[in-house]
Design a protein that fits this description.
With 282 residues, this protein is of the alpha/beta class. The chain is built from seven helices and twelve strands. It has one domain: 4-Layer Sandwich (Purple Acid Phosphatase, chain A, domain 2).
């Protein structure tokens, strides 16, 4: 983790102006559940308490509001999410792209409407720091979302517990894994939210986490059929760009996310809502 100021990419307003024009030109702006990949996976966890058997985590990531995804689309998507079966919501970063003022009220409205069940939890992505992390975290507070960036909470069901932790964006050097580890309760299963999937290289070496949930890559926006991998890979999503991996003793899951960056191109790579179902490996 570094304490120096975060360098923002240049020309954000120009990028967003171009993006706004392209978004307005879209022939279809409404949410369509048939064009979303609802991915449901079982994840085996060592020593998972019986009260957490079939515990469902619904993950949303990389909304990039204002860049292809309009406020109306997000609002309808949240209506759909609220019909699904889950226990907690996790959000793994990049809620905005290049501007925030035009979209922050719409984002807050949708987040406040998001059904929380046993809780809503989030971490920040690199774009959120570029746009203004305080604005994003204030929206979290006003929406009942717990910010887990470099933090941890213990979830309890009866006598059983799990750690749900989060790390801030490593792209902007805001991550502080030592701070997270210091807050973990010992000898219980631990799940980590991390925007960038390649952070698994660091988190897995601690031998403290059973599962890391990430986004950032958008699945590469192109997945090779039958091979199910992404040939187009960016920084911090080069090793684990899409889907499920075993990294040491830890499972890494990388969602394809909801939005895209730059061009609205997804080939064999639908936007994704993920439901992770916890199972006792023993």
């Amino acid at each position: 983790m570094k304490d120096n100021d975060i360098d923002k990419p240049k020309g954000m307003w120009l990028r967003q102006s171009i993006q706004d024009a392209m978004t307005l030109a879209l022939p279809e702006k409404k949410f369509n559940e048939n064009k979303i990949d609802l991915v449901e996976i079982d994840i085996m966890i060592n020593n998972l308490g019986k009260n957490f058997e079939d515990f469902k985590i619904l993950n949303l990531t990389d909304i990039h509001l204002g860049q292809w995804i309009t406020p109306e689309y997000l609002d309808e998507l949240i209506d759909y999410v609220n019909t699904l079966d889950f226990d907690i919501i996790t959000l793994t970063g990049d809620y905005f792209s290049y501007v925030i003022d035009d979209y922050k009220l719409a984002f807050k409205k949708s987040m406040q409407k998001l059904r929380d069940c046993d809780g809503k939890f989030a971490v920040l992505g690199n774009h959120d720091h570029w746009m203004g992390s305080k604005i994003v975290t204030d929206i979290f507070k006003q929406s009942g979302i717990i910010n887990l960036s470099n933090d941890s909470r213990v979830l309890s069901r009866g006598e059983d517990k799990i750690n749900l932790a989060g790390v801030d964006s490593c792209t902007v050097c805001a991550d502080n894994l030592d701070k997270v580890i210091a807050k973990l309760e010992k000898d219980i299963p631990s799940i980590l939210l991390a925007h960038e999937p390649d952070f698994a290289e660091e988190s897995s070496q601690t031998n403290l986490f059973d599962l890391q949930i990430s986004g950032h890559s958008h699945g590469g926006q192109l997945i090779i059929p039958k091979v199910d991998t992404a040939p187009l890979r960016g920084p911090n999503s080069y090793k684990y760009p899409v889907g499920i991996y075993k990294v040491g003793d830890m499972i890494q899951y990388t969602s394809k996310g909801l939005g895209t960056n730059s061009f609205r191109i997804r080939i064999n790579c639908k936007p994704e809502i993920t439901i992770i179902n916890l199972k006792n490996k023993n």
